[in-house]
């Protein structure tokens, strides 16, 4: 039995934020990881996806500038791109582990599980701690259809030696839209199949429709209101069949129909930790139904989007909660930006235009077509639009939804504007380099 102040289950962005934070405060901590040190984001999520996306973005920039004195659109070389991705990801687990080693943070490579006495079993090691933090994340959900065993996931896509000529994505959420965009840019025939009429449900419906039009214009076969019911081998390929009886052959089918919390094998019932189908139940101090066990990041059942910066923020909150001498306030989140990356990026933050329309006494919405604004005309962005939500009483921006090739930058500027409660007078106090995206900020409200 080894004794610690805090044991952390999961060595992803959430768990590592807790481990380093508590270690810096002088706690004896141990972190347990069953698979790849670093977790989903740097190994098989955000970072590898964004490495592939760099080539997609460069290709898109070249394509739109064909009428702008540029000749020729570069082609994606999948093996070379994958080699670049692997050069990055292959270093992550070792680099993360050696970081823990040099910080002298105890770490165990094993699937952790609670024992009935509340200790944590990590392989042959039994770890006893005053508190435990669960940060075990989510894993891809495989829909229950005939031929489920033939479905691949984002983990497979992001490490494919060979990308088939024709691929199908089942589910048009973040993962489906982003990976479909990459496969399409690599010159593959792509089917993006969604079961309802509302892909990317958390985002503004008008802007999602604009994005779907962009995906279709790029040649992606977007099928809404379509249920895939069967996948079966057909020679070297797979045959996909829908509920309406339509069918086609495709090289690979990827389940991009959401992710599920990793909770099944943790022995949570032994330690009185309640869960729902969405994850671990926590209060507004991120404490589970067992007061000595906390949970953070993708594994928790909370309404905040499941994103790396959110996992890190929750990790830092738990560090404060476990080291403060006085009682800490409930967790309060700043406005959280989310971005669906691609040739056209879709981003959102704060009060949504839909919420604003429901409460039009409090908010107004500026729906601006930015396509002909200099910043977007310069790069020949085919469609740039922003809906800015403004609080009537203060005149301040409190939310926005953006579609453009530059949305990831615009949304981060707006994150500062919203967080710092800047009104247009305050923004005008700064001299911002012109002509840039930042210098557009004063015209949004
Ligand atoms: C394809 C894809 C793209 C994404 N892109 C973005 C993006 O662009 N931006 C963004 O912000 N977010 C993105 N995300 C989401 C982001 O990866 C997650 O929000 C983030 O990784 C959550 O961190 P976490 O620490 O909660 O969980 P994870 O990173 O999933 O880490 C949990 C860790 O716990 C380990 N574990 C599980 N069970 C046990 C056990 N019993 N014992 C020990 N260890 C265990 C797992 O192996 C894993 O390493 C993406 C996700 C995917 C899948
Ligand atoms: N850019 C980013 O920040 C980024 C990128 C990828 C993933 N993520 C994170 O990972 C999480 C998971 O992403 P995701 O795309 O897997 O999930 P998601 O929940 O965003 O989307 C899955 C979609 O699939 C649909 N669906 C469910 N069952 C289906 C079926 N049988 N057939 C067709 N469609 C079906 C759902 O209605 C949903 O719209 C996201 O919520 C996000 O937090 C973030």
TrEMBL record:
Sequence positions that bind FAD: 50, 298
Write down how the cofactor binds this protein: Binds 1 FAD per subunit.
What keywords are assigned to this protein? FAD, Flavoprotein, NAD, Nucleotide-binding
Q: Which GO terms describe its molecular function?
A: nucleotide binding; oxidoreductase activity
List the Pfam families hit by this protein, alphabetically: Pyr_redox_2, Pyr_redox_dim
Bridged cysteine pairs (disulfide): 41-46
What domain of life? Bacteria
Entries under InterPro entries matching the protein: FAD/NAD-bd_sf, FAD/NAD-binding_dom, FAD/NAD-linked_Rdtase_dimer_sf, Pyr_nuc-diS_OxRdtase, Pyr_nucl-diS_OxRdtase_dimer
Q: Where does NAD(+) bind?
A: 171-178, 258
Where's the Pyridine nucleotide-disulphide oxidoreductase dimerisation domain? Answer: 336-440
Q: Which cofactor does it need?
A: FAD
Domain FAD/NAD(P)-binding, chain residue ranges per copy:
4-315
As for family, the record states: Belongs to the class-I pyridine nucleotide-disulfide oxidoreductase family.
| Protein name per its UniProtKB record | NAD(P)/FAD-dependent oxidoreductase
Tell me the organism: Levilactobacillus suantsaii
């Amino acid at each position: 039995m080894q004794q610690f102040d805090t044991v952390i289950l999961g060595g992803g962005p959430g768990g590592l934020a807790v481990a380093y934070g508590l270690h810096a405060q002088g706690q004896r901590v141990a972190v347990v990881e069953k698979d790849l040190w670093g977790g989903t984001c740097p190994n098989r999520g955000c970072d590898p996806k964004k490495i592939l996306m760099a080539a997609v973005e460069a290709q898109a920039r070249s394509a739109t500038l064909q009428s702008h004195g540029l000749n020729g659109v570069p082609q994606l070389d999948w093996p070379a791109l994958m080699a670049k991705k692997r050069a990055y990801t292959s270093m992550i687990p070792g680099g993360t582990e050696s970081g823990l080693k040099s910080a002298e943070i105890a770490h165990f490579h094993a699937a952790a599980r609670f024992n009935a006495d509340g200790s944590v079993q990590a392989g042959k090691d039994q770890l006893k701690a005053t508190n435990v933090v669960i940060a075990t994340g989510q894993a891809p959900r495989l829909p229950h259809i005939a031929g489920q065993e033939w479905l691949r996931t984002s983990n497979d896509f992001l490490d494919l030696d060979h990308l088939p000529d024709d691929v199908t994505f089942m589910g048009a959420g973040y993962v489906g839209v982003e990976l479909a965009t990459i496969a399409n840019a690599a010159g593959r025939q792509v089917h993006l199949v969604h079961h309802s009429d509302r892909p990317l449900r958390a985002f503004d419906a008008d802007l999602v429709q604009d994005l779907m039009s962009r995906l279709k214009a790029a040649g992606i076969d977007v099928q809404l209101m379509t249920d895939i019911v069967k996948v079966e081998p057909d020679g070297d390929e797979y045959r996909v069949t829908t509920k309406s009886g339509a069918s086609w052959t495709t090289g690979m089918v990827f389940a991009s129909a959401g992710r599920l919390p990793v909770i099944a094998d943790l022995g949570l019932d032994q330690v009185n930790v309640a869960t729902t189908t969405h994850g671990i139940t926590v209060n507004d101090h991120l404490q589970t139904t067992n007061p000595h066990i906390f949970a953070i990041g993708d594994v928790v059942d909370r309404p905040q989007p499941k994103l790396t910066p959110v996992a890190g923020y929750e990790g830092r909150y738990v560090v404060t909660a476990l080291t403060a001498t006085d009682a800490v306030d409930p967790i309060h989140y700043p406005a959280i930006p989310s971005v669906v990356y691609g040739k056209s990026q879709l981003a959102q933050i704060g009060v949504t235009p839909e919420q604003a329309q429901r409460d039009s006494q409090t908010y107004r919405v500026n729906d601006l077509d930015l396509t002909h604004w200099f910043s977007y005309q310069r790069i020949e962005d085919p469609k740039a639009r922003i809906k800015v939500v403004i609080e009537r009483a203060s005149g301040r921006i409190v939310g926005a939804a953006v579609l453009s090739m530059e949305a990831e930058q615009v949304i981060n500027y707006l994150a500062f504007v919203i967080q710092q409660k800047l009104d247009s007078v305050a923004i005008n106090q700064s001299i911002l380099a012109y002509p840039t995206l930042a210098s557009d900020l004063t015209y949004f409200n």
